Amino acid sequence: MFRKSLLALSALAVSTPTLAATRQEEQVWINFTAMGSLKGDLVYFAEIQPRLNGDAGPIDQLLMRPAIGWKLSPSLTVYQGYAHVEVPREGRADRNEERSFQQVNWSIGTFGKVELSSRTRLEQRFVSDGRDTGWRLRQFVRAETPLGARKSGPAALGWMEGFVALNDTDWGARKGFDQLRSFAGVELPLAGKSTLEVGYLNQVINQTGGDTRINHIASITLWARH
């Protein structure tokens, strides 16, 4: 009887699929973004973002993203942009990704002392080791509130951004939930309208094969506005 039970348990263990793995890493993301008006309602932004391993060592990813836009109203702006992403890979050729994207920025309004805004972005992704075009939708919501009596002073800041892949590709994208980013930190005023944002960013990524990657990120962003 005992032998039969042991054999049954062994068979069950062999037939049970391997559980999805969760990998956790530490990183540092540094973002510099310049933005402003080119002429009247014609606007732009341009950003460069090196993403470093947790020991501030080799670059894990380098992103460059310019865009040009039109201000439809004081609260609504639309953009067309391009992004270039370099991903170094040890022992293999680097993976390069080119993206075209359309974006809508909306200043939702202020409720009490909390200012809300959102960003909706649709991406078309082209990867160097694949032939398919990946479509991805990103939705970003941000909330900030002054830490003191002055609205122009330091502010508490939080935001979330969800990513949804709209199709499967031959380079690994899978339709459905792609990733979620959640940030908590502070916004510090600099000269003019420029600001510095510093805080903790949590990134949960749904990887190929059902595995999950969680990045714990020290995030530093400089906004140069004019």
Automatic annotation (TrEMBL):
This is DUF2490 domain-containing protein. It comes from Sphingomonas crocodyli. Keywords: Signal. Residues 1-20 form the signal peptide. It comes from the Bacteria.
